[in-house]
Amino acid sequence: MALMITDECINCDVCEPECPNDAISPGEEIYVIDPNLCTECVGHYDEPQCQQVCPVDCIPLDPERHESQEQLMKKYRIITAA
């Protein structure tokens, strides 16, 4: 699954620099996660770094994007090969 940022986001700016895939960017009102770039930090870290630093706990799994660990690893390999 990719992660998503909910409307509880306070735009504190701490998640964006933590993303190793540059999947997080400012949206119109809150930060957003590009699901095509989010690997939940698979291939980089043991846990999603954005979730670790978020002070309001507003980065859950996106229920619309079911991905296995294997799919996330495949995405990581594609992203890092470019």
Short synopsis of the structure:
The protein is of the alpha+beta class and about 80 residues long. Helix content is about 20%, strand content about 5%.
Distance between the amino and carboxyl termini: 22 Å
The proportion of residues in beta strands is 5-15%
Radius of gyration, CA atoms, in whole angstroms: 12 Å
Helical percentage? 10-25%
Describe the protein in words:
The protein is an alpha+beta fold. It has a two-stranded antiparallel ribbon. It starts with 23 loop residues before the first strand and ends with a helix. The mean pLDDT is 95. It contains 2 helices and 2 strands, in the order ββαα. Helix content is 22%, strand content 7%. The chain has one domain: Alpha-Beta Plaits, CATH 3.30.70. A hairpin with a 4-residue loop joins strand 1 and strand 2. This is YfhL family 4Fe-4S dicluster ferredoxin.
Give short descriptive properties of this protein:
alpha+beta, 82 residues, two-stranded antiparallel ribbon, Alpha-Beta Plaits, YfhL-like, single chain, 22% helix, 2 strands
Helix and strand layout, with pairings?
Blueprint: E1 24-26, E2 31-33, H1 49-53, H2 69-81
Antiparallel strand pairs: 1-2
